[in-house]
Amino acid sequence: MIVLFGFGKTTKRNFGSLPDKKCKFCSENNEYELLRITTWFTLFFIPIIPYRFKYYLVCSNCDRGFEITRDQFNSIRLINQGMSINNKDDISIVADDPYAGKNEVQRNFLMSMEQARKKKENN
Fold it and tell me: Please, are residues 7 and 42 in contact by the beta-carbon 8 Å criterion?
């Protein structure tokens, strides 16, 4: 008996949009699409068990975007469904964060470079 299994099948699901935010890539005011990318374990090429979820906000104009956290995704999703949330700072962090989509190491490096640049300008 042969059993075929695999990893890496991905599916994309759109959960609505975040209206009229300025895109940091194309500098246009557009909607951001709220996406969840799911990676699956497959059996006989049929997706069976999801094992990874990634969440993104993607510009509807240039199709570029950045990864967001699960909490930010859930907050935006609740707002799109007309519900109120406790921490509205999650949304402003997503829209205004210059380091959005970067991992912790990249954020720390960019922040240290920015501090060094400011220190050099002050001297």
Answer: yes
Q: What is the pLDDT of residue 37?
A: 93
Neighbours of 90 (CB within 10 A): 19
- Asked if 51 and 9 touch (Cβ cutoff 8 Å), the reply is no
CA 41 to chain CA centroid, nearest Å? 22
Q: Which residues of the chain have pLDDT under 50?
A: 85, 88-90, 93
Q: Please state, in angstroms and rounded to a whole number, the distance separating the CA atoms of residues 117 and 45.
A: 52
pLDDT given for residue 93 in this prediction: 47
DSSP designation for 97: -
CB 69 within 8 A of CB 55: yes
Tallying the residues shown for the chain, one arrives at 123
CA distance 84 to 76: 10
Distance CA 21, CA 44 (A): 42
Structure confidence at residue 106 (pLDDT)? 75
Q: What is the DSSP letter of 113?
A: H
